[in-house]
Every structure is written in C-alpha cells, then in structure tokens.
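To whoever picks this up:

The nightly regression suite flagged Transposase IS110-like N-terminal domain-containing protein as changed. Nothing in the input moved, so I suspect the structure step. Input below, exactly as stored in the fixture:
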Amino acid sequence: MQMLAIDLGKQSFHIYGITGDGEVVSRKVSRAKLPDAVTKLQPQSVAMEACASSHHWGRVFEELGYTVHLIHPRFVKPFVKGSKNDAVDAEAIFEAANRPTMRFVPLKSVEQQDLQALHRTRDRLIVQRTALINHTRGLLAVDRRAKGTP
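Regenerated output under the current build:
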C-alpha cells in the first residue's frame, strides 16, 4: 500500500487506502488499535489533516518508520464528496495527499507545540485583559453620564 489516510477523532479513527491489488480499505479503528492497524497494513506513508493531535500521531508513526504527511484542512475540503462523515473525510484526505502539487504542514516536535500553546495562552490573556478594560471604561462612562458630568 502506497498511502494510508487517517481521519482523526476523539475515540475512533477512520482509515482509508488502496492496496496494490486495487482493493479499497476503509474502516473504523479505535484509538488503542490504530498503531497496530497501520502496522498491519504497512503503508509507505500516512496522511492526516493537520491539528494538535495529528502532530502526536505523526510522531508515533514516524517512530514506526513511516513517512508522515499533514495537510491543512482547507486543502482537504475541496475533495469531500457528499455528506460529511468520517469515511468521506478519510477518502478526501487520501485524494488530497495524492495530488502532486499538494503542500504539506511540517510535523511539530513536543517542544514546538509547547511553545505554540504558551504563545496562544498569552494572546488569549491579552485579548481578555483588553476586553475587561474596555468593559470597565464603558461602565464608568455610563456612570458619568448618569450624574450629568461631561
């Protein structure tokens, strides 16, 4: 098998691939059985939509010796056929990953993800601080107008 596409979920994942004989492999796999299922199919590469957990699974599959391709979700969306479900998403990831001009997201290390989480937390705190300051100014402005002060 050349490539195996995986649609990541919380408790279960959907895998999709085509064997050398042309047989379509499309099935649901539990979280605990995912590494074994991938090892059993022995693909040359694994493709997933890029998200926080895809970096974790990407590192797991790289340790097992597979080439990992992460695709930004906006590049997968045009390949979704019909109503959205896990099987359709896995097939869309497969189709997108096999495009010769597809751009992939680099796999992040644990340290890179930690640093990104730190930056995002800081940004969120800044937004919340600004919102609180603006809210307080609004309340104080209402109080001044009620007392007749300009």
